[in-house]
Protein: Glycosyltransferase family 4 protein
Organism: Pontibacter fetidus
Amino acid sequence: MRIAIVINTSWNIFNFRLSLIQALLAEGHEVIAIAPHDNYSQRLLDAGCRFVPVTMEQGTNPFKDLWLIWRLYRAYVRVKPDVVLHYTIKPNIYGAIAAHWAGIPAINNVSGLGTVFIKKDYISNIALRLYKQAFQYPAKVFFQNHDDRKLFLKHELVRAGITEVLPGSGINLDAFKPMPKPDPTAPFTFLMIARVLYEKGVAEYVQACGLVKAKYPTIRCQLLGLVDERSRSGIKQTTLDAWLATGVIDYLGTTDDVASIIAQADCVVLPSYREGTPRTLLEAAAMGKPLIATNVPGCREVVQQNINGLLCRVRNAPDLADKMEQMLQMPPEQLQKMGEASRHIAETKFDVNFVIQRYLKAVAEVTAHKQV
């Protein structure tokens, strides 16, 4: 069977869907990765995929993006997949329409709602209309948390019968596993891993780090992630530079070896405004780290209050600082217990093999329906 995976970057496919690709290849399927060309496109080829480049502009311009339907339609007609797996907003919307035009069954995955339900403006209103139009067509729609599914049903954007909730993209428990802190004498370290966007809570994290470091000047507060100024929620490099100049946080840039950075942290923080199921929290949980996150959809799927971490109020830096201080004051035994609980949650709820099995089943179902 020929299966196309369509995402907004090759980087995203390689980093978040490689386990699924390997499982599909092991089952004897042909996998075609469809995405813009970037530094990770060759890695997809090396992994055994075919790669078909399709341009997807960044930013939100629905009128300009309508051309993406045509580009994806042409790719689908040329490649002739038996089923298309869509991820991220643009493939979910425009890819679903293109697959419908091409007569190919599609499986969509809503991995997070981004600014559509966070920032209310004319662009988000257009996006909602596009979702309602496009989501008539997929054979299956996966959500990564129950809140997002309920919201789509409330707005009548999708039929309930084709929806299902998955535990995010899942986590490879062998690639991310507990390991001792390389330097146990190093200062207590908070780590946030996210694109440098306002909606990820980066501004609140910086402010909270300032409040905590004023009382505990020896602690470390780190930020790992891509600066994305072209995003609607992107933080300017100049703003980040100003924050760095205060010495409140250390910016680590980006890396392909996230596990080694997580290993050096004592607590991983994500004060996001809304998530699907955040990959960074899954990685940290699998590595046995205590967590702090906002009490919002997606984050509370991973963080259980006082079990494996602490939940704070959204857009509230003082409350985040309070939770960071609580974490600092915990005895080592309690931190270790929280870390062990994180690993247990990762093993029992978020194993990538469960996600893979659901995809294999869904692919078989929708392609069998097509053949009938």
Summary: The longest helix spans residues 352-371. The domain at 189-349 is CATH 3.40.50.2000 (Rossmann fold). The chain has 15 helices and 13 strands.
